[in-house]
Structure formats: C-alpha cells, structure tokens
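so the lab meeting is tmrw and i was supposed to have these ready like two days ago... anyway. pasting both below. for each one the top line is the aa sequence and the line under it is the structure tokens. i havent really looked at them closely yet so no promises
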Amino acid sequence: MRIVLDTNIFISGIFWEGNFCSQIIDKWKRGRFQLVSSPKLIKELINTLRSFKISMDESLIEGWKNLIIKNSMVVYPLIAINAVKDDPEDDKFIEAAVYG
C-alpha cells in the first residue's frame, strides 16, 4: 500500500508521541506501507519544522528529511493538478498521490 501523508500528520506525530499520527509514522518506519513524497512535500515539512512553535534542532530536521528521502518513493510530478479549490497549496499532495 502506498500513502501520501499531509504535513500535519508528520507534525503531530513527531511532537506528540502516542497519538494516532505518531502511530501512523511508526507503521511507516516499520514498513507497513510505502510513503509517497515529492520535493514540494519534503520542502513544506522542513519549512514547517523550522518555523514551528516548538523548536527543533537543525540536525533533527535534517534527520527527518533524510529519513523521508531514504525510506519513501520520491516522485517528481510533471503536470500540475488543480483539484483543491479551497486550498490550492494542497494540490501538491494530490500530485504526489497521482504520480505515486
């Protein structure tokens, strides 16, 4: 099974252990499903981690980036998809899902 995770899932799962989001991340780490990501999704996560209200050391942020790159299917969408009318910034998640 391949899954695209929203940035909010990562943020909640990284900073608050034991919740549903952290369980999803743990299942990904254990190989229960294949994460699909893209450069745009990785960039959004890294930027969010850097600016989040709970400070995270840059080495940990780089660790998450490297973990995602190494342990996911990174896709490079060639065609922009305009599907999320209420929040066009979320189109990148649809693009990753389609290409994954």
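ok protien two:
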Amino acid sequence: MTSYAADIKPLFREGDRRSMLGHFDLWSYEDVVQHKNAILGRLVDGDMPCDGSWPAEQVELFRSWIAAGTPA
C-alpha cells in the first residue's frame, strides 16, 4: 500500500517545499491531504514542480494515493 511517509513525501524535494511554504507545507501530511486535489491538478497540468513536470509514474502514484484514501 502507498503511504504518505514512505512514498509521497519523498517525491517533494526541499526546493519544492520552500517554493510552496507561503501557501502550505508539502512535508506536512495534513497540509498535503487538505490540498491534495489542487496539488494533483497542478501535477497533471505540469505546473508543479516549478522546474519541470513529474514523470507520469509519479503523478499516477500521487493519484493512486488519493484514491486509496490518503494513508499516512
């Protein structure tokens, strides 16, 4: 099973976290769950992270984590 701590949090690099801290903390489970749909939308659109889009496999991992109920 995919979990935030083991699978999702490591996808967000220090630079990604810094660039988003004015809005929410990508290293906070609660923040990511609260903004999961907006994050997914930005990932799908290729707008996030700001230095280039994630590979399709990582976007799908994030999508499947949401579908699984966002396990911690």
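from a quick look at the 2nd one: Helices lie at 4-8, 14-20, 29-34, 36-45, 56-67. The mean pLDDT is 97. will dig more after coffe
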